[in-house]
Design brief:
By secondary structure, this protein is of the alpha/beta class. It contains 14 helices and 24 strands. It binds shikimate-3-phosphate.
């Protein structure tokens, strides 16, 4: 596509994005890369910090969330090179080397930072910590990690029975437990495994359905003793394992790639290749759902990079049909439900998404957010207690919509705008930098504005 074609106008004005669809006869195209996987980035920083020796992280996500993790770890004595290049070095302090910080640790908007870090803090004997986050994070449930940590002997205080941040933690030696989690949550699993690293004996987490397994993979790579049972829902860590710094290569985030996969599927005539995407099977629920909707997506150059499967994903536009999803696939596409709702709004038939009540306690209530904002644009979405029902095929019209300061809502609405008439104004859209600092640049690129063929510059 020649770069002179202005296929879409996108203005970035403080907190508001104005997005219009491509002009008639113009579509989306090109090869793009997406920033590093957010989950893997957090874990690489944390494991690097508590390992012995140096860790080099290549392809780290330079978004706000990993920056929160890095700042907390630095406040506890880990040396981390400036987060201004996607090659970052972490000098580990060793398994029990984190220091008591002189101030409150701030996890910002990041649930992963706060929940995983609680496992490290609770088991750091002799140190006192206070932890908090932004208004969204301070409203999100923390009992899901506080309760199992308390069963391990942790001392944690906070409002409402330590169920919300700010929280105070007095680190001490913990005992291993076998924990049957009521929810499939990688944050819960990872928090307990990190605490279990420093207990005597074994700590087991059993999940009702398999959640992302990046912690298990990376803990093993760093030298921890990890056992995973047959169906992978039960994971055991042996306390006292020694961790050694590693080189971690972070693949592109499939949660960020999902925006281009859906854009490429719904905008007539589009063809986009998203390069270097992590396709760990615990994360590819979105590919399965889009396949059920008849999307034309193929995997190219499948390979394994530093213990994680990676592929290029090619999407070509095709008329989508509705699907019904729920059950075990939900944890494998939990962050992609907002963008899946956008795909469903343009599919023929009624899509039903169930078993996704967890979306109500993400950075915003994502079920309510997508239902109200897509309906403002003319979609027919009904909120269910644990999901969404979307009657596809309505003509959407651009209007003023609210992102609630939630990165994935802002970007999902921007993709919806590409198939809507007129201009969509998205409030608080700067939240995208939480997980996808280069989103606007790549949106311009796929629309043919200021196109660069060198997609790797899009970081
Ligand atoms: C994450 C796990 C998921 C996901 C979040 C990142 C992780 O949360 O929504 O964006 O890195 O472990 P839950 O574990 O709460 O489902």
């Amino acid at each position: 596509m020649p770069s002179s074609i202005v296929a879409a106008q996108l203005l970035q004005n403080g907190e508001i994005w104005a997005v219009t669809p491509p002009a008639t006869g113009v579509s989306l195209g090109g090869r793009v890369s997406v920033p590093g996987d957010k989950s893997i980035s957090h874990r690489a920083l944390m494991l690097g910090a508590i390992a012995s020796g140096e860790t080099e992280i290549r392809g780290l996500l330079l978004g706000e969330d990993p920056r929160s993790t890095a700042a907390c770890l630095q406040a506890m004595g880990a040396e981390i090179s400036p987060l201004n290049s996607d090659r970052v070095r972490v000098s580990g302090v060793g398994e029990v080397g984190l220091r008591e910080p002189g101030d409150v640790l701030n996890a910002g908007n990041s649930g992963t930072t706060l929940r995983l870090m609680l496992g490290l803090l609770a088991s750091q004997a002799g140190c006192f910590f206070a932890v908090t986050g932004d208004a969204s994070l301070r409203s999100r449930p923390m009992s899901r990690v506080v309760q199992p940590l308390q069963q391990m002997g942790a001392q944690i205080w906070g409002r409402n029975g330590a169920s919300v941040a700010p929280l105070a933690v007095s680190g001490r030696s913990l005992q291993g437990i076998e924990y049957h989690s009521p929810i499939a949550s990688a944050q819960v699993k990872s928090c307990i495994l990190l605490a279990g690293l420093r207990t005597q004996g074994k700590t087991t987490v059993v999940e009702p359905a398999l959640s992302r397994d990046h912690s298990e993979r990376m803990l093993r790579a760093f030298g921890a003793e990890i056992e995973v049972d047959g169906d992978r829902r039960s994971v055991t860590v042996t306390g006292g394992s020694r961790l050694t710094g590693q080189t971690v290569v972070v693949p592109g985030d499939i949660s960020s790639a999902a925006f281009w996969l859906v854009a490429g599927a719904i905008v007539p005539g589009a063809e986009i290749v998203v390069e270097n995407v992590g396709v760990n099977p615990t994360r590819t629920g979105i590919l399965e759902a889009l396949e059920m909707m008849d999307a034309d997506i193929s995997r190219e150059k499948e390979r394994e990079v530093a213990g994680e499967p990676v592929a290029d994903l090619r999407v070509r536009s095709r008329v989508l049909k509705a699907c019904t999803i729920g059950g075990d696939v939900i944890p494998r596409l939990i962050d992609e439900v907002p963008i899946l709702a956008v795909a469903a709004a343009f599919a023929s038939g009624t899509t039903t998404i169930r078993d996704a009540a967890e979306l109500r306690v993400k950075e915003s209530d994502r079920l309510a957010a997508m239902a109200t904002q897509l309906n403002k644009m003319g979609a027919r979405v009904t909120e269910l207690p644990d999901g969404l029902e979307i009657v596809g095929g309505a003509d959407l019209k651009g209007t003023e919509v609210e992102s609630y300061g939630d990165h994935r809502i802002a970007m999902s609405l921007a993709i919806a705008a590409l198939r809507s008439s007129g201009t969509t104004y998205i409030q608080q859209a700067e939240a995208a930098s939480i997980s996808y600092p280069g989103f606007v640049k790549t949106l311009r690129q796929v629309c043919g504005e200021g196109t660069t063929d060198n997609a790797t510059t899009d970081k």
